Amino acid sequence: MIEQAGRRVRLRYSRQVWAREAHGVLRARADAVDVTPTAAGAPQRVLRVAHTYSLGLGSCLPC
Question: Are the C-beta atoms of residues 34 and 45 closer than 8 Å to each other?
Fold first, then answer.
């Protein structure tokens, strides 16, 4: 996966290819998400949802 190059480490070539392809897939998904509301004629609005672990499922579900 990684190899040492002096005091640094770097991805091996196969992992560099994998990372580049994964980045392309994620970019395509983000582009599709951005284009879909516009193509549907809906106004673009951004809704961001955050989650705090301490307020998550552990404290919300009954035992």
Answer: no
Instruction: Report how far apart the first and last C-alpha atoms of the chain are (Å, whole number).
Output: 42
3-class SS of residue 16: helix
Q: What is the pTM of this model?
A: 0.51
Region of residue 47 (left: phi > 0; alpha: psi -120 to 50; beta: else): beta
Question: Contacts from 9-18 at CB under 8 Å and sequence distance 24+?
Answer: none
**For residue 8, pLDDT beyond 70:** yes
